[in-house]
Design a protein that fits this description.
Elements lengths: L1 H13 L4 E3 L6 E3 L4 H18 L6 H18 L9 E5 L7 E4 L3 E5 H6 L3 H16 L2 H14 L4 H6 L3 H8 L13 H17 L6 H14 L5 H5 L4 H24 L2
Parallel strand pairs: 3-5
Antiparallel strand pairs: 1-2, 4-5
The chain binds zinc ion.
Zinc ion binds next to helix 5 and helix 9.
Length: 261
């Protein structure tokens, strides 16, 4: 945390705004955390989650997540330089959730595997989560936090405790241990856009995004808010946007299907 704050302060002093161009969308964002720092925090937070939560040893569930994950990782390619991909299934049938952390660390809960019945639907979720990572949404949010810190709002607490773990976990909406943040509508929409491109390039039907989000909405109607929706707020526009974007990515899907028969 100290290092990040220092980088930020030095960056501000020198007037070096860290400008990042989001892959797939081309949006420019301001990020004062280096990709190396981000990956290191992601790897360390992921190791922590693995140690604290029950990891599934179900061979079928693990094979499924790795099979889909490997193809998505290939589709992501240079959007995430230096990725050290890791796919872990967490054994918790009640938790409908999945997440990705910087550096290519992906966690999927068994509760979500039940809901996302097809590999196409699983690819939608994994593509979306990894979309948040390649777009560096968590780092963007940390930067906003650091700006607030520079304004004196959280400087004291940030300096006192080594909170970088919590920050990165909260930044990527991992629903564990308190400080979880909901992604903004803009970040959700961007991750949707990126996610269907990754799924399509990996040879998974991008239209599965529609059935997946419809299921999530239905799940939520029973008064039960799945962990996934608390960190990835949804709205009616999401499905309309996806329906509009899908035709443009169908050719990517058709081309990829030949590579993945
Ligand atoms: Zn999301």
């Amino acid at each position: 945390m100290r290092v990040i704050l220092l980088t930020f302060v030095v960056g501000l002093t020198l007037g070096l705004a860290g400008c990042y161009t989001v892959p797939e969308t081309g949006r420019r964002s301001m990020i004062m955390v280096s990709p190396g720092q981000e990956s290191a925090m992601g790897a360390s937070a992921f190791a922590d989650l693995r140690a604290k939560q029950k990891v599934s040893e179900d061979p079928e569930a693990n094979a499924r997540v790795r099979r889909v994950g490997k193809r998505i990782a290939e589709a992501v390619g240079k959007d995430l330089p230096g990725a050290q991909w890791e796919f872990v299934v967490f054994d918790d049938p009640e938790t409908v959730n999945a997440f990705a952390l910087p550096g290519g660390k992906v966690g999927v809960y068994t509760g979500l595997l039940k809901l996302a019945e097809s590999d196409d639907e699983l690819a939608t979720v994994m593509g979306h989560e990894i979309g948040h990572v390649t777009a560096r949404h968590g780092a963007e949010r940390m930067t906003e936090g650091l700006i607030a810190a520079a304004g004196g709002l959280i400087l004291d607490t940030a300096m006192k405790d080594n909170k970088s773990h919590d920050l990165i976990v909260a930044g990527y909406g991992v629903a564990a241990g308190g400080g979880m943040l909901a992604f903004s509508r803009q970040h959700e929409s961007e991750a949707d856009f990126i996610g269907i491109r990754y799924a399509a390039r990996a040879g998974y039907n991008p239209a599965a995004a529609i059935t997946f989000w419809q299921k999530m909405a239905k799940e939520n109607k029973g008064g039960r808010l799945p962990a996934f929706l608390s960190t990835h707020p949804s709205n009616e526009r999401r499905i309309a946007d996806l329906q509009q974007w899908i035709p443009a990515v169908l050719p990517l899907y058709e081309a990829a299907k030949k590579r993945y028969p």
